[in-house]
Amino acid sequence: MTDREIDGAETGATSPDAVDAAFLADVGQRVRDARLAKSLSRRALSDVSSVSQRYLANLEAGIGNISIGLLKRIADALGVSVGHLVTADAAKPGDVGQLVELYSKASPDDQRRVMDILGVPHPGNPRAHRIALIGLRGAGKSTLGRLSAARLGVPFVELNQEIERAAGMPVTEVMALYGQEGYRKLERQVVENRAKSDDVLIMAVAGGIVSEPETFQFLLAHYHTIWVKAKPDEHMSRVREQGDTRPMAGFPAAMESLKSILASREAAYAQSDAAIDTSGKSVDESLADLLHLIGQRRFIAR
């Protein structure tokens, strides 16, 4: 039997009862919504699905007693599941349906971020309730990290201090003895080890972690990352207020260098899950911003 004969036989079927009529009308509406969402004419859908325009018109009008085989063709042509067209509570393609489609095509990390934003628990979340504060030195990562951890009653980790404990020597000696490569290896080890041992913590990491792509990607995948940022002059002044004059000593172009570093890392920092700006704010104000963000995004359950 040809498609045209099938069309004729099925559209000429006996009248459905009230329940069937409502169901068919609902399916027809979903088909029409899905077609319009794809910006397809009925003729275009007919060409792609090999189902006649007349039958599609009847289907959308709610009078097409459709077979599973034909419905499968139409669903495939529209890029949706058969279940989407027949399930009573199926989402409309124009709103939630499109979101579901985008979510299904997203990377695992992006899917986890969506779930975290919505506050929906999901199994096997590799980031658990770990937070990593990233950004340039002087933004307030250590201060805010320590204070927020104390307020929330969770462990606080200063990454460089953990590296010093692991190496048994100050970071300056690690750099002198093993160079940048040795330091980066220790950094990766500590970040991975804490991810394995702690489900809940707040960690302040060195701003240069973004220069090691593999370590940074691991951080993004296993920690909720927050970019703590400030204006360049505030970065510089805060470091000096801490008693460290190295940023300015013998280096008149230090500010320009800092701006250049920030510009080169900005795209990487922007990959964070969220950000707070501490520019022109007191510690208490910035702490309030950070705690609000953590609570709003449910990075740590209170």
Summarize the topology.
Elements: H1 3-11, H2 18-37, H3 42-49, H4 53-60, H5 68-78, H6 82-86, H7 93-105, H8 108-118, E1 129-134, H9 141-152, E2 156-158, H10 159-167, H11 171-197, E3 200-204, H12 213-222, E4 224-229, H13 232-241, H14 254-269, E5 274-277, H15 283-297
Helix pairs in contact: 3-5, 9-15, 10-11, 11-12
* Neighbour order of strands in the largest sheet: 2-3-1-4-5
Describe the main β-sheet briefly: 5 strands, parallel
CATH architecture label of the largest domain: 3-Layer(aba) Sandwich
**Estimated structural class:** alpha/beta
User: What is the distance, rounded to the nearest whole angstrom, between the alpha carbons of the first and last residues?
Assistant: 65 Å
- Reported by name, the CATH topology of the largest domain is Rossmann fold
Short description:
The protein contains 15 helices and five strands. By secondary structure, it is α/β, with parallel strands linked by helices.
Describe this structure in words.
Helix 3 (42-49) packs across helix 5 and helix 9 packs across helix 15 (283-297). With 302 residues, this protein is of the alpha/beta class. It has two domains: 3-105, lambda repressor-like DNA-binding domains (434 Repressor (Amino-terminal Domain)); 109-297, P-loop containing nucleotide triphosphate hydrolases (Rossmann fold, 3-Layer(aba) Sandwich), CATH 3.40.50. It has 15 helices and five strands. It has helices at residues 3-11, 18-37, 42-49, 53-60, 68-78, 82-86, 93-105, 108-118, 141-152, 159-167, 171-197, 213-222, 232-241, 254-269, 283-297, and strands spanning 129-134, 156-158, 200-204, 224-229, 274-277. A five-stranded parallel beta sheet has the order 2-3-1-4-5, sandwiched between helices.
